[in-house]
Amino acid sequence: MAFLKQHEVQAEPWRNLAARAATPRGVAKQRVAIVTVCDYDPTQTPLARLSKLNRDAYAKMHGYDVVMYEKAPLFADPLAELLTEPLAHRPPAWSKVDALLETLAQGRHDWVMWLDCDSFFMDPEVRLEEVVALAESRCPAAPGDDAAGLRELVAKWQAGPEKDPLYFGMSRPELGPRNVEVHSEELKFEPENAVRALVLAMAEPVSRSGAISTHANVSNELRPLLSDTRFECVGTSG
């Protein structure tokens, strides 16, 4: 863990700066939401009440929105039908993802910040926009713009699977196993399968028929990870 922390400091030196160093930059105000889940029994701990007081005071000072859940939320998207167990059976920590997705789906904020229930703002004078601006100034964006690719990936995720969940939106069933062959009787929805399917779904179509080229946008380093007893990537010509 110590090595990992040292690597973070070297890769992103702005992390090691005092938070107050961000204050004089005068960054323009943006729409910010602070998201928290405090699913605790109030008869056992006052943590949820104290956490809300801290967030409300900080948000009021800077004009932010506080989105606080007293019960773990469940966000249902088009991929929920692929789950083999009820959403409520997941570990409580996954409620962080649902809470963020609920806020992001509204599309009302420039930045959405996750904050654990037991985390508190200790330096209320520092605005979140200033911290973001400081990080961006020390870590300039790469020359290539991946925004279009990210939007495409989000669109595929929101659209959900086409017809049969077995194919996870990778290819229409009527196209057959020309490019993606599934070698199991039933494809369970597991994290590793989701990652492989999303990477394959991002591959560039080589024709209007919807055939997927596994060599277009998927690097050679990823190919071994995409081939196992369930998936076999079959290369295409042209």
From TrEMBL:
InterPro entries: Glyco_trans_34, Nucleotide-diphossugar_trans. GO terms for biological process: protein N-linked glycosylation. Pfam families: Glyco_transf_34 (PF05637). The keyword Transferase applies. One of its GO terms (molecular function) is glycosyltransferase activity. The keyword Glycosyltransferase applies. Keywords: Glycosyltransferase, Transferase. One of its GO terms (cellular component) is Golgi membrane. Belongs to the glycosyltransferase 34 family. This is ANK1 protein. The gene is ANK1.
